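Q: Structure tokens for this one, please.
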Amino acid sequence: MTNQQDKFLDYLQNGAGKWHTRALTDKSLQGDRDESVTNVTLATYGDAVLKLALCEILLDHFEELTIEKAKYESDVSLVKIAEHYGLLQYLQFDRSNREIPQDYDSRPMEPFFTQSKKERVRHHNRRRKYIATAMEAVLGAIYKDHRDFSEIVEIVRGWIEILDGLTADSLNVLKGKNK
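A: Here is the predicted structure, written as tokens:
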């Protein structure tokens, strides 16, 4: 694990304050509270930060930027990264809600036979959305707290390494060094 990946884990473990708490509070705990104390809107901010960081890293190295970027910003990829960091142990969500999985497994729960195939797919995709939302929100919170875009870029490079298991030569390209 690189030092930059440790920054993400360090933020999960030791971050404090408004943005940290908000990033790790799922809307399932919202109840009567308004959205400003959950991670929903912060995730939108974090999603934009993630997209910009991915463009910064990938733009000069891939002809099909949109396709390459999509591999790293998908909910499936974010859930894999979340599992790597053990995000669920830090996330505050309604653990009594059976609709919210207690693990990173993205397989669907028992099918609801009254649902159409399209409804089952939607339900399946929603099962991991809260984890991906939290990942985006944490990234947004790190940027809000530190205002250091280079830190975000390095964290996202670490995520690419986690997802791809890149070789040293590939990492040098992504770090902007000559091939």
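A few notes: The chain has eight helices and no strands. Residues 166-171 have pLDDT under 50 and may be disordered.
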